[in-house]
Amino acid sequence: MAQRASNIRYFKIEGPGAPARMRQLKALLPDSVRLFGGVGGITFIDELEVGVAGVIPGVGFNEVFKQAWLAWQTGERARVRDILDSAPEFDSSRLWQRTRVLVACAETSGKTRRSRRMQPCAPPHGFAHRRRNRRGLSCSGCA
User: Fold this and answer.
1) Overall average pLDDT of the 116-141 stretch
2) pTM (2 decimals)?
3) Contact of 84 with 90, CB cutoff 8 Å
4) H-helix or E-strand spanning residue 36
5) Cβ neighbours for 58, distance < 8 A, ≥ 6 positions apart
């Protein structure tokens, strides 16, 4: 698509397996076409490692991701996780509910059955716990 339409400047890739798909797509694109992540930045750190141009997280999280982005750009990679872990925006019940719904939709792929793994981790586990689970959902000790 980018080869046929010279005005394409970026793609927003999100959903299950986004970082892996980004890595594959990046190898095929010219340097002038950039990749952005989404889905509230759930896989933001993995996307940064792929070399994305940024994240389009949705309303309410821009300042957090801006701080994380600046830390990444200055080589403070360990600080990125600290910024995301300490962000109060990621402890709000609204974010947890939204994340549960997004991932539940992605994981069921049209199935109506809900499983225990589709329950969100309760906040004190925070953003890093959700990211480590790669599904943004409960571990054996949660929910």
Assistant:
1) 46
2) 0.60
3) yes
4) strand 34-37
5) 38, 40
